[in-house]
Design a protein that fits this description.
357 residues; alpha+beta; 2 domains; three-stranded antiparallel β-sheet; 15% strand; DNA-binding; DNA damage
Length: 357
DNA sequence: GATCCGTGGGG
DNA sequence: TCCCCAAGGAT
């Protein structure tokens, strides 16, 4: 059974930029980028990353803002922040040499059991099992698991451990992930091409399109947000850097906040700007409305041009604030929903600028 | 153990 | 348009 998978992998495995790579730094970066993120999305970010941070030492020396700028658009920004923190820890604790024991690797921020197994098997051919989304799906189908995978994690880890080819852990882990990504897909699995067809309980029972069982999901709540593009008399815009811990931590944004019951967007924006920045603004024309879905809620950004009236801007509910021109704004990492606001500002501003000469 | 944490693409 | 889900980890 292991042999049939490895033979399939030898002929049908994907050719990916990090395959055959022996530098643990490069393996590590690929594993972090691939968390909850498809290969196609990762590849351009992966290439760009090493132009900016060719070595682990250069990553450790970088400023967090540079790291987040390269990560901009990839999402789950704690991954980028943790990559940076872990690089500094590796330089400090291990002399810049990526650690090679499971215990040490698991202590690095952003690395859990699956990522640790992925790194140790891919970089050092160590027999450490993994349980990513692909493996969960493959094993759930293989065994015809009758509960959602996340309700049977200890069982799935046992199966992953038992199946792992201890003679070829590097290729085996890559192979089972490729199987899940290319044949044993979430919808319409290509069972006729599968090397494990004869071993697959779901296929034998005709259940491959019913399994794995779905996880329980609750409907996403929706929030309406008032957002301010605050202009001063020099034609600069006020942006703020979000607090470290939570959603989009460390990224820049246009200030604003949640609309309260019975409140107009004008009132909301004046209130939020006073609370967060301690300044007064006049709310003007609506610039754009942006709908965006995060992983656990949806928002509508109602964006208004505002005029700065007075008060000294203070970083009350953020890390930092800055007045910037539209030309400078590209230097700062912004979340995706905000990039639509920037695009709208450009569209609107260029004709204005040309009219003014 | 349940929640939080982004974004893009497919059906 | 809407829902699903993708190389998960931290709290």
């Amino acid at each position: 059974m292991r042999r049939s998978l490895l033979t399939w992998y030898q002929h049908q495995g994907r050719d990916l930029p990090w395959r055959g790579e022996s530098d643990p730094y490069k393996i590590w970066v690929s594993e972090i980028m691939l968390q909850q993120t498809q290969v196609k999305t990762v590849i351009p970010y992966y290439q760009r990353w090493f132009k900016k941070f060719p070595t682990l030492e250069e990553l450790a020396r970088a400023d967090q803002q540079e790291v987040l700028k390269v990560w901009e658009g990839l999402g789950y920004y704690a991954r980028g922040r943790n990559l940076h923190k872990a690089a500094q820890k590796i330089v400090k604790d291990y002399g810049g040499i990526f650690p090679q024991t499971l215990e040490q690797v698991l202590k690095l921020p952003g690395i859990g059991r699956t990522t640790a197994g992925g790194i140790l098997s891919a970089a050092f051919n160590q027999p450490v099992s993994i349980l990513d989304g692909n493996v969960k799906r493959v094993l759930a189908r293989l065994t015809a698991l009758l509960v959602p995978p996340n309700q049977a994690l200890s069982q799935l880890w046992q199966w992953s451990d038992q199946l792992l080819d201890s003679e070829h852990p590097q290729d085996f882990n890559q192979a089972i992930m490729d199987l899940g990504a290319t044949l044993c897909t979430p919808k319409n699995p290509a069972c006729l091409l599968c090397p494990w067809q004869k071993h697959c309980q779901s296929y034998l029972e005709g259940l491959q399109n019913q399994l794995p069982m779905r996880e329980m999901t609750s409907p996403l709540p929706h929030k309406n947000i008032g957002v301010a593009v605050i202009w001063n008399e020099q034609g600069r815009i006020l942006i703020d850097r979000r607090l470290e811990g939570g959603l989009l931590g460390g990224l820049w944004e246009f200030p604003g906040g949640k609309l309260e019951a019975g409140e107009s967007y004008e009132d909301c924006i004046r209130r939020e700007i006073q609370e967060e920045l301690g300044i007064e603004v006049e709310v003007g024309d609506r610039l754009i409305t942006v709908n965006h879905a995060y992983s656990h809620f949806r928002i509508t950004l109602n964006v208004y041009h505002c005029r700065y009236l007075g008060g000294e801007p203070q970083a009350i509910e953020c890390q930092e604030i800055r007045w910037v021109t539209l030309d400078e704004i590209d230097q700062f990492p912004f979340p995706k929903a905000n990039s639509q606001i920037i695009a709208a500002l450009r569209d609107q501003n260029y004709p204005r600028a040309s009219n003014q000469g």
